[in-house]
Design goal:
This protein is of the alpha+beta class and 199 residues long. Helix content is 19%, strand content 39%. It has 4 helices and 11 strands, in the order H-H-E-H-E-E-E-E-E-E-E-H-E-E-E. Strands 1, 2, 3, 4, 5, 6, 7, 8, 9, 10 and 11 form an 11-stranded antiparallel beta sheet that branches.
Length: 199
């Protein structure tokens, strides 16, 4: 019951923050720089070698820049046949926000979902860092994932070359780089999405 109460508090906090900071109509430089890749998919590879990621190293890693609209880009991250992950970048008045939308195969949300953070980096940066926000920390505590309280996620975009997603915290480093020079065939839609939409 204690964990359920914490999760309900986290959900309420997420809803209030979303209402307080609606997406701005003006895209950041990073969101603008992602626009040429909308509707395309790209293969990636791990550039870190943590033992806990060994199983992922043998899988195909595909990012699909599936949905772009004013102030928001959604990018499903496919690991082999696992289509549960979508990265959601949104423009807020105070900067960019990153959320991780995790779904089950039936489209329902995983218990660990919509975590992430808001960036305080310069709005013109093509490397943007996202320390874990209050909502995420409440969720991590409720689910007993206290190591994740120190999570910092980042995206680095090198136009025409690569997009790098990274997770960092003390004792943990995960990064995957996607080759933007060569699109690959589009994957199936992410779980919970009826069909891909690049518009």
């Amino acid at each position: 019951m204690h964990n359920i109460a914490k999760l309900m508090t986290a959900a309420s906090l997420f809803a209030s923050v979303t209402m307080m900071y609606p997406a701005s109509a003006a895209d950041s430089v990073l969101l603008q720089a992602l626009q040429p890749y909308c509707g395309k998919a790209f293969a990636g590879k791990l550039i870190t070698n943590a033992p806990e990621d060994a199983a992922m190293a043998g899988q195909s890693l595909i990012v699909h820049v599936a949905n772009c609209r004013a102030g928001e880009v959604r990018m499903p991250f496919h690991v082999g046949e696992d289509r549960s992950r979508t990265w959601v970048l949104r423009e807020l008045p105070q900067g960019l926000q990153l959320k991780h939308d995790h779904r089950h195969q039936d489209g329902s949300h995983d218990e660990l979902t919509m975590y992430g953070g808001a960036s305080s980096d310069a709005a013109d940066a093509l490397t943007v860092r996202f320390p874990a926000d209050a909502y995420s920390k409440l969720m991590f505590e409720a689910l007993g994932r206290t190591a994740a309280l120190a999570n910092v996620w980042s995206f680095t975009l090198e136009p025409g070359q690569q997009l790098v997603y990274r997770l960092s915290r003390p004792g943990r480093e995960f990064a995957v780089a996607f080759d933007l020079s060569q699109p690959v065939p589009l994957p199936p839609p992410a779980w919970g999405v009826l069909q891909p939409n690049a518009n």
